[in-house]
Design a protein that fits this description.
Structural class: mainly alpha
Shape: elongated
Radius of gyration: 21 Å
Number of helices: 4
Helix content: over 70%
Distance between the termini: 33 Å
Length: about 160
């Protein structure tokens, strides 16, 4: 990746982080203050949805942090170091936790007669999408591990060759 690609990526990540923090710190409390459902069932659904939004924000923030650190490693040319794997694993875990939370939210919505079945189906589809992303990142993590191993072997061979010459 070039210098401008890294800068562009970091700008996008900074905007995503700012929007996520805005939702978590301002929008969710405003909803809690200004929206008060009349019955207990609506309060339960509102609490479930707002809790899900907070957890989704944490998932996004985890991924933004990890991608930022990986982009920094790309910029320095150290992305094929085994230490990079430590920044990929949290992305996999975050998406897996997000998928479980999405399925839990869908289950809660399915228990209601007020929520349309199509909404429950969309929430389930979002959960499946998150599982798919988690699996894709897992495969990419394995590729990164292989590339790091190959890089280490190449460095060792260069050292041996330098000693022979």
């Amino acid at each position: 990746m070039g210098k401008y690609s890294i800068i562009g990526l970091k700008v996008v990540l900074a905007v995503i982080l700012a929007v996520t923090l805005f939702v978590q710190l301002f929008m969710i409390p405003m909803i809690l203050i200004h929206e008060s459902p009349s019955n207990g069932t609506d309060k339960f659904f509102q609490a479930a949805f707002l809790g899900y939004l907070i957890l989704a924000g944490l998932v996004i923030e985890t991924c933004v942090y990890s991608v930022w650190k990986l982009a920094t490693r790309v910029k320095r040319g150290t992305v094929f170091d085994p230490a990079s794997l430590g920044y990929v694993t949290p992305i996999i875990v975050a998406f897996a936790v997000g998928a479980l939370a999405t399925f839990a939210l869908g289950t809660i919505f399915a228990a209601s007669t007020d929520i349309a079945p199509g909404v429950v189906l969309l929430v389930g589809g979002a959960g499946l999408l998150m599982i798919g992303i988690s699996i894709i990142v897992l495969v990419l993590r394995q590729l990164l591990a292989q590339a790091a191993l190959t890089e280490a072997q190449a460095a060792e061979l260069r050292t041996e060759l330098g000693g022979v010459i």
